[in-house]
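FAQ: What does the model actually see?

It sees only this:
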Amino acid sequence: VSLSLSLHASFAVSDGVHDCKRQNTKRRVVFVSIICPTHIPTHMPPSCSESLEDCVLSNGQPVQVELVDCHIFEDALAFAAHLAASQPGGRQYRYDAVLALHAIRSGRLLQDCPLPFGIVLGGTDVNKCNPDGPQAIPEVIRCARAWVAFSTSMRDKAMQAWDLNSAAIRVIPQAVSVPDRTAFDLRKHLASSVPAAADTRSVLFLLPAGLRPVKDVMFLGATVAQWHKEDARVHLVIVGPELNKAYAERVRRQARDLAGVVMIEPLDRADLCTAMLQCTAIVNSSESEGMCGAVLEAMHNGCSVCVRGNSGNRAIVEHEVDGLVFEDPAQFVTEAKRLLTDPKLAARLQAAAQHRIQREHSAAHEQKGYQAVVAKLAGTT
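And it is asked to produce this:
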């Protein structure tokens, strides 16, 4: 889960609007996240941090939240110095608690943290972090006072990896909000580089992902290229920011050699959400996921989704109920062809996906969950 660039504007507005309320606040929480623009996939929806900021401030909870970028601190000592900065009134620390997003990124700052802290677990934390490895992250996770997982599957993995009590991990599914549609036209965007994809008869499968190994965006590449030879209308369009330079360069080289596989530069989030509506399906081929924001957005938009069968994807997509799930590239082609030949199936899946998002991923539920976490950490409950 990554922060949206809109967070900066949201927080700046909140500072002015709620100054009168903040004069009377008694508890302060620092939210450690990733707010460096170079780490923000532009397709991702506002993260839990924006929801936390909204729910704590606009609902009048007696807690002040400050957002900080984990990348500005060299190590745990530098972060501890930030916590201990002198404040009027003789306070030893400027905050009462810490909430961190992604143990594997922010956790390095929490070693020997003098304040109670909670951790919002990311997909990499539960899918890739080795509990017995040399890094101190696992011990940081065990020492937290509160934990948040986006799904029961993430919670269960965390319980198994770090021997945590299930009652101690609050499951808070990500909420979904999407920007208004724009005038963006994906086919026109592709016209100069891939004229065949710009044809109104083209069949576009859109794969939004930050380019790093776990996203495995070329998992379907060779198979889609073979399908493209059989049906020249078919194209797989990969879009997303470069999060791992070596991996991104390798993907670009592979895509150039595969007819039917197209890579484009990152799109503005509103344009990307609009582009989703112009495709046959939104695809996720990740080796593992926490909870994929792009898939949630697609389902919210009433798009068909076709996802690889990892536990994170299965937590939000039920095969043949609100989307299609594949285990290997050949099955992807089989399932994708069903969407082309059975419009009633596509319409049923799209309607069910929208209903699921409305039922399970509401902003009100997310906000209530983070209110409880922050209140627990800050000692207001």
